[in-house]
Amino acid sequence: MRRDVFQAIADPTRREILNMIATQSLNLNTVAGNFEISRPAISKHIKILMECGLINIKQQGRERICEARLEKLNEVAEWIEQYKVFWTSKLDALETFLAKDAEESITSQSPSTPIVKSAKIKTKSKNQ
């Protein structure tokens, strides 16, 4: 099965694995030791991350070391950028509309319109 980066980051455990190894390479046992799930489950997550190209496993002596390859996340960033441009333009248009609407409502108010102030009503207290 061919997997993509979006499938890999869809799972919170895989995102946490990426966070752990983003700044430093760790051996598989250290990675697995940080989770309360079985080692076979962690191995499945690691395999998916490898298939997507987000991590690399290197053999160092008897240990297998996980290294992050975060450049693959650029695919996600590029996809998000499309929607950022879309929503930025929509929000800018909304801001312009609201500013124009507010300006029109201020200028349309007649100066002869009386301003009503709220009156305070005195109430008798229980002590009187």
From TrEMBL:
Annotated transmembrane regions: none
Top-rank taxon: Bacteria
SUPFAM superfamilies linked to this entry: Winged helix' DNA-binding domain
GO molecular function: DNA binding; DNA-binding transcription factor activity
Region of interest: Disordered: 103-128
Record field: compositional bias (Polar residues): 105-115
Keyword terms of this UniProt record: DNA-binding
Segments forming domain HTH arsR-type: 1-88
Feature: compositional bias, Basic residues: 119-128
PANTHER family, A to Z: SLL0088 PROTEIN, TRANSCRIPTIONAL REGULATORY PROTEIN
Protein name: DNA-binding transcriptional ArsR family regulator
Organism: Pedobacter cryoconitis
